[in-house]
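Task 17 of the worksheet. Students: predict the tertiary structure of the chain below and write it out as structure tokens. Keep your answer in the requested format; marks are given for formatting as well as content.
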Amino acid sequence: MQNLLGIVTAAHVSLGAVAVIAGALALAAPKGRPVHIAAGRTFLISMACSAALGALLGLVKAESLYITFHAGVLALTLIASGWLAAAGRDARPSRAMITVGLVNLANTVGLILAGWQAQAAPTGQLLGYPAEDYYLLAGMAGLAAIWDASRAFRTTFPARHRIASHLWRMGLGFFIAAGSAFTGPGASAFPEDVRQSGVLALPELAILALILFWLAFTLLRRGPKTERSAR
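Model answer:
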């Protein structure tokens, strides 16, 4: 059993590393270009596999990795809905999008309850993680759930909104992958001085800045190029 867990952990970490590299290329590259498409596909596959394995590890090793279960489910729903947003043309959500949204809603509720339990505990933690970590993930999941629900009331879904939905969902999935690698469980691979310096938080800040930049670029820029990139 331990050998199997070791293999699963190694696969989770390796695929996560691939997802971080591919995600960086996809987020930095001009949207719609071959580099962006190839990197995006690599990110989608590697991140989905890594997230699924992370969720599994979070269940099997709940005493130390429980939050990884919620993070894995969140990453899966974000990249699944991000892919569906890019592929879908209809204003109303498809059955697949509704299913992903319901899973995300359930995960949001679970994260809020976990955060509340951590906050109420004498140590301020639940299974080794503070309440704010659970609430941060709950905020991301809740944002996606609200956006999913809003689709039910739309009569139109402009191309730039579809691209923006795809972009921020994939971007947050990338943010989770980077967080796991640099400030989450993966931080243990770095020396103590590096972990205490705060430098490991810089990749996450850079990702957030790039997400905001591309969102602004996509939503504020109107014209033929924006419409063509969505086709």
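Marker's comment: Residues 70-229 form one domain. The chain is about 80% helix and 0% strand.
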